[in-house]
Every structure is written in C-alpha cells, then in structure tokens.
C-alpha cells in the first residue's frame, strides 16, 4: 500500500500529536504534579522553620515567664481551692453579683498539672455579670471559663441568672487511683 504525500503528512502529524499526548500524559503532567507537591512541602517546612526560629529566639523570655507562672501559681489542691474561692467572692463583691453557690470538683489526672472545676451560680444585672466575667478573664490566677449559661431573671428588676464552670490549674502530685476523687462540698452562701 502506497500512501500519497498528503496521507503521509496526515500520518506524520497524527503520530506527532499522539506522541505529544503520551509524553504529556505520562511525563509532563506527573512531573508538574510532583513539582507542585514539592513546593507545598517546601512552604510547609519553611513555615515550621520560621516557627522554630521564633521559639528559639524567645526561649529565654518564655523560660522566665514559665518560672514566674510556676512560682506564682497554685501548688496544691487545698491552696487552689482556697485562693479561687477567695477570688470568686472578691470578684463577685466588686462586680455587685450575688453568688448563690460555688461547688469545687477535683478532676483526677496522671499528668503534672491538675485541674479543679468550680460550678458557680449567681444573680445580678447584666453589668454586674459582665464585670464579674471580665475580672475572671483578666485574673492573674490560672483560671478560665469552660462554659457559661445566662438566663433571664425578673424583667422588672433587670436581673439575670448566671451559671458557669470555671477551670483552675494547679501543680499537684498525680493521684494514683481513679477512685481517689474527693467528695463534692457545697460552699454555697448568700450575699
């Protein structure tokens, strides 16, 4: 079978197109995909390197800050309970919030830092609740609000109810047994 000049040109162009398609599909596209993957990995490693350099540069300052936190922090469960209860009473008095109950609850942990949860309930105006929460959030004690519930009280008096769970961290010896949970004591009082 003899091909005409035109058919040979069409055949050659077709072979070149199929060859380019095969090269593109099996060589160029995988190489480009791998280059994109390597660029993403390079950027991720660059970000990690910058973060590590930042941490190394601030190591001394962070060590001093950590030592200050540990030395000023709460060392035992009794100290944590006492200081947080005192602070809650002071904060509620400053804010004008009437606390109806405070219930501490120790959480067993086998790690170095221990956690104590305080369930706090009270009533007051929106302003007193916001001042009370502001004092908790800006406190020097290692405490944070885990969750909060606000309810409407009497509309004529403009009061609202507040219930929150406050988490306090303290250094302590880890408890050896999960059965060693302290009994819950209600330190409720009325102002």
Description:
This protein is α+β, with helices and mostly antiparallel strands. The protein has 2 domains: 57 residues; 98 residues, 2-Layer Sandwich (Alpha-Beta Plaits). Strands 1-2-4-3 form a 4-stranded antiparallel β-sheet. Helix 3 packs antiparallel against helix 4. The longest helix has 53 residues. It is elongated and about 105 Å long. About 6% of the residues have low confidence.
Helix- and strand-based class?
A: alpha+beta
**How many beta strands in the DSSP annotation?**
4
User: Widest sheet: strand order?
Assistant: 1-2-4-3
Measured as a percent range, the helix fraction is: 40-55%
Largest β sheet strand count, sense and barrel closure = 4 strands, antiparallel
Identify the CATH homologous superfamily of the largest domain: Ribosomal protein S6/Translation elongation factor EF1B
Supply the key terms.
alpha+beta; 51% helix; Alpha-Beta Plaits; 191 residues; four-stranded antiparallel β-sheet
Structure summary:
Residues 28-58 form a coiled coil. The chain is 51% helix and 23% strand.
How would the blueprint of this fold be written?
Blueprint: H1 5-57, H2 59-72, H3 77-95, E1 98-107, E2 113-124, H4 126-137, E3 143-152, E4 160-171
Antiparallel strand pairs: 1-2, 2-4, 3-4
Helix pairs in contact: 3-4
